[in-house]
Amino acid sequence: xxxxxxxxxxxxxxxxxxxxxxxxxxxxxxxxxxxxxxxxxxxxxxxxxxxxxxxxxxxxxxxxxxxxxxxxxxxxxxxxxxxxxxxxxxxxxxxxxxxxxxxxxxxxxxxxxxxxxxxxxxxxxxxxxxxxxxxxxxxxxxxxxxxxxxxxxxxxxxxxxxxxxxxxxxxxxxxxxxxxxxxxxxxxxxxxxxxxxxxxxxxxxxxxxxxxxxxxxxxxxxxxxxxxxxxxxxxxxxxxxxxxxxxxxxxxxx
Amino acid sequence: xxxxxxxxxxxxxxxxxxxxxxxxxxxxxxxxxxxxxxxxxxxxxxxxxxxxxxxxxxxxxxxxxxxxxxxxxxxxxxxxxxxxxxxxxxxxxxxxxxxxxxxxxxxxxxxxxxxxxxxxxxxxxxxxxxxxxxxxxxxxxxxxxxxxxxxxxxxxxxxxxxxxxxxxxxxxxxxxxxxxxxxxxxxxxxxxxxxxxxxxxxxxxxxxxxxxxxxxxxxxxxxxxxxxxxxxxxxxxxxxxxxxxxxxxxxxxx
Amino acid sequence: xxxxxxxxxxxxxxxxxxxxxxxxxxxxxxxxxxxxxxxxxxxxxxxxxxxxxxxxxxxxxxxxxxxxxxxxxxxxxxxxxxxxxxxxxxxxxxxxxxxxxxxxxxxxxxxxxxxxxxxxxxxxxxxxxxxxxxxxxxxxxxxxxxxxxxxxxxxxxxxxxxxxxxxxxxxxxxxxxxxxxxxxxxxxxxxxxxxxxxxxxxxxxxxxxxxxxxxxxxxxxxxxxxxxxxxxxxxxxxxxxxxxxxxxxxxxxx
Amino acid sequence: xxxxxxxxxxxxxxxxxxxxxxxxxxxxxxxxxxxxxxxxxxxxxxxxxxxxxxxxxxxxxxxxxxxxxxxxxxxxxxxxxxxxxxxxxxxxxxxxxxxxxxxxxxxxxxxxxxxxxxxxxxxxxxxxxxxxxxxxxxxxxxxxxxxxxxxxxxxxxxxxxxxxxxxxxxxxxxxxxxxxxxxxxxxxxxxxxxxxxxxxxxxxxxxxxxxxxxxxxxxxxxxxxxxxxxxxxxxxxxxxxxxxxxxxxxxxxx
Lengths: 254, 254, 254, 254
What we know:
Four copies of one chain form a homotetramer. By secondary structure, chain A is α/β, with parallel strands linked by helices. Helices cover 39% and strands 17% of the residues of chain A. Chain A is built from eight helices and ten strands. Chain A has helices at 22-26, 43-56, 81-101, 113-121, 123-136, 149-156, 190-203, 230-243, and strands at 3-10, 31-35, 59-63, 106-109, 141-145, 161-166, 205-207, 213-215, 220-222, 247-248. Chain A starts with a strand and ends in a 6-residue tail after the last strand. In chain A, 57% of the residues are buried. Chains A and B meet through helix 2, helix 3 and helix 5 of A and helix 2, helix 3 and helix 5 of B.
């Protein structure tokens, strides 16, 4: 039987603020990446998200980012690799501890925003992140874009890896995400998103906008939670996959 | 052979700021309580403090506090017990992870400032703190003032406890610290501090300002790091104890 | 001709976060109270809110609060009156400067949340706030609940005062807002809110839940922006007032 | 009579933290640049610094920087020019208001750290800063390194300018500060600093490390407050100038 994980970022509010329909997404996805209080999130939101995930049977991971609440982790701030290793380790540890309060357990790390993008292309940043994860807990899986620099570095360090595709983003021929500023880079149509994901799963390859195939062992599909029709896209992707015979289940049971 | 631990708060700077002569204190004490980034401290300072402690053979613990950098954790902020449990767990987890980066391991928790004081007297707050510690790691020791509410609650939950006395603070007949605003509450004379600590160790009792003895199994002596002559006091206390035949060693080896 | 101002809090997002339908409210109200970066708001949001208010012909004021983004200014934090005076002055000055960038000008202050509530009942806190306003700019109006401690203190210091009623809140016989925890304290029905406001305006009195009348020179009606049907309530209140012959116009032109 | 101003950054602590001997420097300098709560400083420190400056007859200015307390404003963070204009205006307004509480008045702006350095070389950043100052208060002077991009932009906008030299920094032939990483870039010897400043004042020129002279109308001499012998350097510079017949007085009376 073919299995696939469906993941989404979650818990990216702060105090009185919230972003996205977390409750709606939690009914659809099988894995959530939870903000750790630096680019978003706080101990309260982390706790309630972990607890809700536990009740829903959904796997959880830390979703650390730059210490930049004002910028939501989307600005590239010139931290040294040492500083990055430290503040990522800090966030992973914090998430692990709060998850225990909720009787759940984090089993992966997915890096957020500008820092995540940087690590996909920059070897030193990728090393900094992998160093943080391996030092804190070698059993944690790292979510990566297949074939990226982060994938290569994590593989070299024998870190467990979950290779993912994005349901709502177009790809370049390199296998990288098409930059958001280019037309057609973001897919808003739920039907289209569902069909694309299914095609990629069935072919075992990323399908670039040009039609080019880049073979990839896809372990998870990422659906964004902060777009207007996020729940609709996620729901459609899940339906398409299940209709085609895939079992949508947490990566931890894949 | 009689053993005793000597502990001090440390790593309470932030970014470009520092407080106290951490390097000086680290040559004298056997245990340090390291700020976790909420009332003070940041991932960089935590890391370098943990690493220096490792090199010095000094035991480390998390020193969490209120999320109040501006107030240095000295303001009583009305958080619910649930909120306190969550943000204390968060800080302990963060400290544990950063310690691993430094090849060290936290083995205790000592709560900072206003929140620590509150927990010494308030059962619900004490429960909140103990709940955080037991959920995150039951093997962590909790530093407490002997006989305080926190001592009682932690004992009831069978948490490992390290009962401490303060080298530079006078005591009330209740065994509580004399409030700082009262005259004579803070001892600035190093010789006097040394003699008092020694007397308390030899008698196995807290000696109140009135002369009253409150029996206590003293496992550690706290010396503050942020007073002008902190290093001098700590050094004198250590000398007095060693001259009297005590072995000053981390509580982890007591 | 009878004139009345309609005010709402606004610009209470932070970075990527937003709360309430600011654009929708801005088409209805005549005055906005803009968060200043401590309990909510940031320089970007302040600027764009001020600019939009300028374009809409809407009066603006500073809406300072506790330095507590995590708590959205709703926690009572034990700051001294001196500290309160300083951080309120700081926020008013910041708002005044950013308003100038937007070619607009702040003409009032309305204190937010827990600090505002405290000032309605506590004379020392009220003095602290009035002291901040008078030191920074004596020409600024202060929004107050009629008859409150803040009203009395501001009157004694001859500060310009705008006395307001709340469209969506029930009143006690004392003229104070009924605490939110009591049943019936918050009015969710737009029609009801509209009729109540009109009745109070026509009688020149606050009408308590008991039916008791407390005479008051009402200069403004506050409509909240962060409730689900905020725009609907505000719109209905405005319609009722206009149908009854009131001119809804900024307090600066009353 | 020849007059010269002596300025120093001040109030760069935060909460319980302090940096430099502010009281010592305040007895020597005639102008202080006060941090505004973003890279350092808080309303309490701003207030007490402004009040002490008032008592000492010392001129005050806003010393705004990046919103980066952790990095003390020394990191170049990629903010847009619009964002920079807004957060600089915010800080200037905040400082102006808190100064009024202390019965003093800010009369200049000097930009801190990485943002200040950037503005010395980058025209767009310089425009952003000048735009903030002119929008908030056209009468404020801007402190600049003579001949820098910031000097040129501020001149073009007819902003009052105070051109300064650094007592403890070596210069390149371009008139720019020698980067700190180069040997000899920072002058630690008080006597040497004093003689250099005097020579530059007497020649009316910046004297580069090579001996090259770059003519400049020097209106102020900056002495740093956060180096170990800062007070000694400042004191020696002042003595040398006074012995040579200069009157050391606030730029506001030059």
